Amino acid sequence: NGKTTIQSGVAQFEIQSMPATDFPDLPNVLYFCSAGKDRTGVVSAILLHKAGMSREYIVADYMKTASNLKAFLESYAREHPGIRLDVIMPHERYMEEFLAWLAAQKI
Fold this sequence. Notes:
By secondary structure, the chain is α+β, with helices and mostly antiparallel strands. The longest helix has 25 residues. It starts with a strand and ends with a helix. It contains four helices and two strands. A two-stranded antiparallel ribbon has the order 1-2.
């Protein structure tokens, strides 16, 4: 068991890692945020990284968000003229940059 604190800019995440064997009756994990791409994507990436998944797998998992949220983000951008769709849509490079940062943290 251990706690990992990750801080980048103003965002801070604390991940309490516990072996799944400590909770045999709880095989699933639920976590989310309002949009489900950035904070949720970061937490997913950290968990997948800690589980030993490849960089390619983590990026592909994050990019599922692009198709899952496309209609929602397009609608949001239309309703908020100052918001650029190309900025709020998930891009592989966003996750690639995060994973590079994460690897440098030796977490």
